[in-house]
Amino acid sequence: MQLIDADGENRGVTDTRDARRMAEDAGLDLVLISPNAKPPVAKILDLGKLKYEQQKKAAAARKKQKTVEVKEVKMRPNIDTHDYEVKMKAVKRFFEDGDKVKVTLRFRGREMAHQQLGMQLLQKVREEVGEISKVEAEPKLEGRQMMMVLAPK
Question: Are the CB atoms for 76 and 105 separated by under 8 Å?
């Protein structure tokens, strides 16, 4: 096997028994680094220290990872223009943060008879954020709510 000592120096091809003896003399472990290589590569090092460093690297990677959240914006079919603009500003901010947005339209009472108004409103939302997002779930009616999910591009 190809042996790398505790100082990181290449000792060349060494017999397995000799490599184990060298590791015992140094008070360290013989760790197989790449078993599929020809010849296999082993390194003399402290196994506990190696595992600890790998755990620290994995924890740092998890810490940097961003989880995608689904933010919800609720509207009504006869929403006023200013209220609509405020909601759209929030939607754009959510996309900048990298979050998905679920646009929910709630119908009350006689508004159920005018579902086409809700569909027009969702199409308007889709067109307004078309450059910065893509539709993940098409508008669909579930009970008294019409929903659409948008994701950032």
Answer: yes
* Coil/strand/helix, residue 36: coil
- Average confidence (pLDDT) over 83-109: 94
Q: Which two tokens stand for residue 21?
A: 């003896």
Residue 142 Ramachandran class (φ > 0 left, ψ -120 to 50 alpha, else beta): beta
Q: Does the pTM exceed 0.70?
A: no
Going 50 to 51 to 56 to 61, the CA torsion angle's sign is: positive
Three-state DSSP at 61 gives helix
Burial class (CB in 10 A: 0-12, 13-18, 19+), 58: exposed
Burial-class residue 51 by CB neighbours within 10 Å (0-12, 13-18, 19+): exposed
Let me know: does 82 contact 66? Beta carbons within 8 Å.
Answer: no
Reported as a single tens digit per residue, the pLDDT across 137-152 is 999 999 999 999 999 9
